[in-house]
Amino acid sequence: MKQLKIGASLLAPRAAQGGWRHPQAGSFIQQPLTYFTEVMQIAEQGKLDFMFLPDYYHIFATTPEELTAHSNVWLEPVTLLAAMSAVTTRIGLVATLSTTYHEPYHVARMIASLDQLSGGRAGWNIVTSRGETEAVNFSSGHRPTVAERDEHATQFIALVQALWRSWEPTAIVEDRLRGIFAHASQVHPMQHKSKWFAVEGPLNVAPSPQGAPVCMQAGKSPAFRARAVKNTEVLFTQLNDLQEAKAFYADVKQRATHPERVLILPGLQVIVSATEAEAQQKKRDYERFDTVALRIAKLMGLDMSGLTLATPLPKQATKDNEIYQTVLKVAQQKGLKTIGELYNHLTAQNSHLTLVGTAEQIADTMTQWLNEEAADGFIFIPHLLPIAMTEFVQQVIPVLQRRGVFRADYEGATLREHLALPLTTI
Ligand SMILES: Cc1cc2nc3c(=O)[nH]c(=O)nc-3n(C[C@H](O)[C@H](O)[C@H](O)COP(=O)(O)O)c2cc1C
């Protein structure tokens, strides 16, 4: 039977906005090691394939109000995941690093070191950091423009993967008697020089226990798909409609030389409870602190003080503001009555698959997406941590295991083994 691959995010995006105020939201400010260890260990009890850390090189707040009301801090991924490698034994560890603000040698070395420390459990989530809000945090230098970034990233990724392969798996022998540490003939510098890069190699980290760390990349557009199938093994994407997901899946797989070596994992949000009504109630409870919705009010120029998702939308346009008029017109056409309904409508096209219901119902949809070739699995994005991870692992995972679509225990030791990917990178 086909098996789901399930990764998860080690950050709860909603908590970063208003969700940190929720009574059940954990905090990593005082004791990050304790907090993240707990989340990782719960995920590992659930036999998840990997945990990953999204990353950006800026804070998200653009106004003093957002700086006041939102959490804008987290931890650097490789540092955090290196610590997590010491408190876990099997789960994969996927760190985000940008091709724009690093050199290939840095990235290859950091991820390879994480891979060594964890016994072959590391992955690299590749991002190109397009935002101006990130650029302002770095000294200007010889850096690609946004238009050049994809070409730059493609070469960057090839160099990182070549550095990971610069020592053959059997190169290091540590023969003390004969004084042979490594077979020099099995170590391969790349002597690379091109428009962007000068990398002589080889890497100064031993070869990977899993052949090479796993490469992941997030995106959706056709241009992204065309690029990513050539150098990426896990595609993280955002899809919430089954038909659209099937079309995306078919398109990516037909572009890939080895379709089974490119896994498609859409983001998944889950609110699970014993009954559907309870789960819906829980969703409303989470949304109490959802200040994203309030940004819409800001956009419309409404007074935000005292606004909640349940606040009714004004019946008539009272402001001479173009966005306000347009948004209100959409709301009226669709019969939307509250700020929350408007928010749900505006984000419906642009959000991860969100399943609210019982564990059986959630498992039904996950299995349907697997069986109908809409996904190879999912990246679970918890609303709040650690509570949402605990609920997912204790309630949804056992149902998937009973149905035989998710592992009862890890079959192997490395991330590549969990994902059933061959030793070679694509
Ligand atoms: C689900 C998802 C998650 C992403 N996470 C990040 C991230 O953590 N950091 C980042 O810099 N970019 C992130 N991105 C942006 C992508 O790295 C990439 O720049 C963008 O999706 C380009 O692909 P496109 O051509 O499909 O837009 C994410 C994109 C998607 C779809």
TrEMBL record:
InterPro entries: Diverse_substr_monoxygenases, Luciferase-like_dom, Luciferase-like_sf, NTA_MOA. GO terms for molecular function: monooxygenase activity; oxidoreductase activity, acting on paired donors, with incorporation or reduction of molecular oxygen. Residues 19-368 form the Luciferase-like domain. The keyword Lipid biosynthesis does not apply. Pfam families: Bac_luciferase. The gene is ntaA. The keyword Ligase does not apply. Belongs to the NtaA/SnaA/DszA monooxygenase family. FMN binds at D55, T96, S221. Keywords: Flavoprotein, FMN, Monooxygenase, Oxidoreductase. Transmembrane segments: none annotated. NCBIfam families: FMN_nitrolo. This is Nitrilotriacetate monooxygenase component A. It comes from the Bacteria. It comes from Metalysinibacillus saudimassiliensis.
